[in-house]
Design goal:
The structure is a single chain. This protein has about 210 residues and is of the alpha+beta class. The chain is built from 6 helices and 6 strands; from the N terminus they run αββααβαβββαα. Strands 2-1-6-5-4-3 form a 6-stranded antiparallel β-sheet. The chain is elongated and about 115 Å long. It starts with 12 loop residues before the first helix and ends with a helix.
């Protein structure tokens, strides 16, 4: 008796369905690998930025930060709310002695909806003698329905720039002093006594 087997050219329906599921799984796995690679690349980029970046939630809790933030602050920024940053991390006004007001630090202002650009302050972690100048920028993170949901803070070391600025100011002041001295000497003429008096006054002032 001859048996009629299905032709090899036609796959049973359940085989086609299984193959389709396998293809879907393979596609999903490939997309998952690609997504993981992209996330890893973004994390590497985030952690290798020359600027410190910190993201805080609406209540001031830190939810994300990069390695540069840890380097500048001297510790991971995890445990302290935004308005306590000045005392905890050592943010000071330009006199280097007065803590930056917690209610005015850019991250807190951003949580109230304000955009703050390049606010300069001194950072002295753990009260070390030699601090660094930093420039801090903060922007609110908003949602259309709920308003401000958090804030992103970016700050960078500007100590070299401040050093250059101070050097230029000193050179400018010195040039002005020399010009002033030369004018005064020219005004007194050949009177040696007057010239000495002018020179002594200049030395006392500068």
């Amino acid at each position: 008796m001859k048996e009629n087997w299905p032709s090899n050219n036609h796959q049973p329906p359940y085989d086609s369905a299984a193959q389709s599921i396998e293809q879907d799984i393979a596609t999903y796995q490939q997309r998952d690998r690609e997504l993981r690679q992209r996330v890893a690349q973004l994390e590497a980029l985030f952690n290798n930025l020359p600027e410190a970046v910190i993201v805080v939630a609406q209540d001031g809790r830190v939810i994300s930060y990069n390695q540069r933030a840890v380097q500048l602050l001297g510790k991971p920024p995890e445990q302290t709310l935004a308005d306590r940053w000045p005392l905890h991390y050592g943010f000071y006004l330009d006199d280097g002695e007065t803590h930056y007001p917690g209610s005015r630090i850019p991250v807190v202002r951003a949580l109230h909806g304000e955009n703050v650009a390049q606010e300069e302050m001194i950072l002295r972690p753990d009260g070390v003698d030699a601090g660094v100048w930093v420039s801090m920028t903060a922007h609110p993170l908003t949602e259309e329905r709920d308003g401000v949901e958090g804030a992103m803070v970016v700050f960078r070391d500007i100590s070299y720039r401040k050093q250059v600025e101070r050097s230029r100011e000193k050179h400018a002041a010195r040039a002005e002093a020399i010009y002033k001295l030369s004018r005064q000497v020219a005004e007194v003429g050949d009177d040696v006594h007057q010239v000495l008096n002018v020179a002594a006054t200049h030395a006392a002032e500068y």
